[in-house]
Amino acid sequence: QRASVLLHPAFRTGTIDRRLFGSFVEHLGRAVYTGIYEPGHETADEHGFRRDVADLTRELGVTVVRYPGGNFVSNYVWEDAVGPVEDRKPFIDLAWRTVEPNTIGTDEFLQWAEREGVEPMMAVNLGTRGVAAAAALVEYCNGEAGSRWADLRIANGREKPYGVTLWCLGNEMDGPWQIGHKDAHEYGKLAAEAGKAMKLVDPSIELVVCGSSSMQMATFGEWEQTVLSYTYDLVDHISMHAYYEEVGGDRASFLGSGTAMDRFIDRVVASADAVGARRRSDKRITISFDEWNVWYLETRFPGEQNLPLQRDAPRIIEDVYSGLDAVVVGDLMLTLLNHADRVPVAALAQLVNVIAPIMTEPDGPAWKQPTFHPFATTARLARGDALDVRVQAPTITTARYGDVPAVTAAATWDGAETDGQVAVFLVNRTAEPVEVELRHPGLALSLGGGLQVTADHEPAVRGPEHAAKVEAEHVTTLDAAPVTASAVGTTTLTLAPESWT
Ligand code: AHR
């Protein structure tokens, strides 16, 4: 099979916002307790946070971390988790039916984020709470001394405001599983009032209004239009969430997940722009794709309602990933790069233990899942502007998504027109090798390094040994891969079957 990819540094779609390489830490399962935080662990710092996890987070290249949920936020009382830890009371988190000890709260998280050099993205509870609690939290985080909530923060030991820029107006409020779920009109009105109050406290913040929980929601499209009809002039971004998985051995559809994500983005952009057009507005709402990943939701997750009531950081949705999953994650990231003009913020859900690229054992090691590799390499190499890449490739017919391209590509350009660094990301979704003619007219490329990840056929198995085996057999540095740089203008690459490069 053959494909051709054409790129030129003069043809750019948008600047890559570094916030595209975000992730997510929710009070869910072992994301916080025995995830980022485990006092007594041999690598724990003076604050009780695991150094090994923080180091892997840096290596992953994560820029933003969303917190504290997710579904969790919709029944969260943030005031109960600030101040002296010994005075905090546990509560039953209804989203995940887990007793939350409240040991880690806003200050502990924000200070961890600051120490680790990641930008926090906070969410407010618009399920069981409303305008006052949301505005108070913004004041607690960002206010200067001399008002009630800012002074409480100072009394709790933090003088300087945290300066949190990104704020989610609730989470997945269209989902019937959400605590305090609302219809689009109820939510739109509440989001507009909460957002208004939050921006009155701190006009510099950016607001993310909830879009649909997935494209499969019955209210998809209508929800975006209604919610934006209340909030268009106020908010900056609308959220998108999407999880993909292999169902019933349908490998072809699973490998086509990037195309599903691509169509989903186009539809949300169209919905938002339709609202803008009706208002004759020049403002463009952008997208915060603040939950995306491979998640075996349909095939492995029993459903929130079927979870037993648990305590002590139970193991919930600790999906184990394969090389195949890593190829799909790479394809999804490439899709986000291709929408750099409209998607400035994204978050791989999640960071550690819960559907995550980083896993830990309590009192034990931390390790990388196979999905770690394409994320880390993309976050490292995709810089500057996204290029308008033209791909010519055969198509594959899939059961779920119809015809999808057999090869996908994205590229970024960092530098001036004649001198800079180009990063190219390619996926071969077919079971055969594909020879790609990479055409870059007028541009002499000297090849740097890279990475190739190939899919496997074995079931994924939990544990550092298995992850290391997948890494040894399916993750190859590009120097060792078959790449030929030819004359100025063309480079030929052979993409391994079912691979991300
Ligand atoms: O990331 C896991 C869960 O998925 C989040 O809590 C929720 O927002 C989504 O349904």
Automatic annotation (TrEMBL):
The keyword Hydrolase applies. Keywords: Carbohydrate metabolism, Glycosidase, Hydrolase. It catalyses: Hydrolysis of terminal non-reducing alpha-L-arabinofuranoside residues in alpha-L-arabinosides. Pfam families: Alpha-L-AF_C, ASD1_dom. It is an enzyme of class 3 (hydrolase). GO terms for biological process: L-arabinose metabolic process; polysaccharide catabolic process. Residues 290-499 form the Alpha-L-arabinofuranosidase C-terminal domain. GO terms for molecular function: alpha-L-arabinofuranosidase activity. Homohexamer; trimer of dimers. Belongs to the glycosyl hydrolase 51 family. This is non-reducing end alpha-L-arabinofuranosidase. It comes from Cellulomonas shaoxiangyii. The lineage of its organism: Bacteria, Bacillati, Actinomycetota, Actinomycetes, Micrococcales.
